[in-house]
Amino acid sequence: MRLPTLSSLLCLAGLVSVPVNAYDDPNIKSIPLRTHSLTSPYLDSDFQSRWFDFGGDTVIRADKYIRLTADRPSQQGWIYSRVPLTATNWQIELEFEIHGNGNLHGDGFALWLTKQRATQGPVFGSTDRFEGLGIFFDTYKNNRPGVSFPYVMAMMGDGETTYDQAHDGKANELAGCSARGLRNAPVPTKARLTYFQDKSLSLELQYKTEDTWVECFNLNAEDSNIAIPSVAYLGLSAETGELSDNHDIISLKAENLYSVGRNSAGGSRGSDKDNGRGRGRNSSVRPKKKTGSWTWFLFKIVLFFGAVAGAYFGWTIYRTKTRSSRF
């Protein structure tokens, strides 16, 4: 029997939190959201996913990737969460790979946070006139002079506006950046999308050097039209036309961000900012009063020492049995 380490007991008691990688601010912590994360082997023991639906031409290779489209013409594939992402503040980190043969390729893939889910369509494999946020990784240039491709852009859909496909989304762009080298990159390609409600939306990319992030955009909610629905499903989709590419998802990691301090960046909307009332199971929650905070802290202390006592008791029983077995 192995005794638990001190750090594992502290985590069990809730006394230790892991800071989000994107921030040096010790006041911002994170909680992993298993309901919106995907890692190999991607499927449960019954070859189904408890938290995601897959469709179209999507193929899953459990030891390597989720392939939204193969390097073949006229393919569409998608993945969508079964439950909405209701966290007030969150961070999504996606590892992906866009690769194929030849110099001609297309069309690209998208990351979605929308009211609609699991609906195949003409916008990178998903539906047009969506309501919510779309992040488009566009690898084929239709008609957009002065812009280098691949191009990554954000669009905020209102449920009525059509994606400007003829001009690669120029009429719809909320923010974006060129990312030459994103396709067939020599290092793992990643995207990190971070959202603080009523505060900011930012996107960082890794494709030039491993562990080096390049800022694509950083939007202030006061100056930009950031209106992510309170009930939004997390999705990924891809599409090929006459030209094609492999669009592979390696991993998807979502985290709920919360603030330790009252006035830090992890605040919530309106009265939630002061009272700490979340909107759902994975919303940010903070104590309303100092009394409640001290009660919760004392409860964690009791839980911690209970865990230590339990570990010591188990070790004592094991040692007694071991000695008895010698005789």
Could you characterize the architecture of this molecule?
The protein is α+β, with helices and mostly antiparallel strands and 327 residues long. Helix 1 crosses helix 3 (290-325). The chain has helices spanning 6-13, 272-275, 290-325; strands at 28-32, 52-56, 59-61, 65-69, 76-81, 89-99, 108-114, 120-123, 131-138, 151-158, 173-178, 189-196, 200-206, 214-220, 233-239, 246-259. Residues 1-22 and 262-291 have low confidence and may be disordered. The protein contains 3 helices and 16 strands. The strands form 2 sheets. Strands 1, 3, 4, 6, 12, 13, 14 and 16 form an 8-stranded antiparallel sheet that branches. Strands 2-5-15-7-9-10-11 form a 7-stranded antiparallel sheet, with no helix packed on it. It has 2 domains: 1-17 and 287-327; 33-275, Sandwich (Jelly Rolls). The protein starts with 5 loop residues before the first helix and ends with a helix.
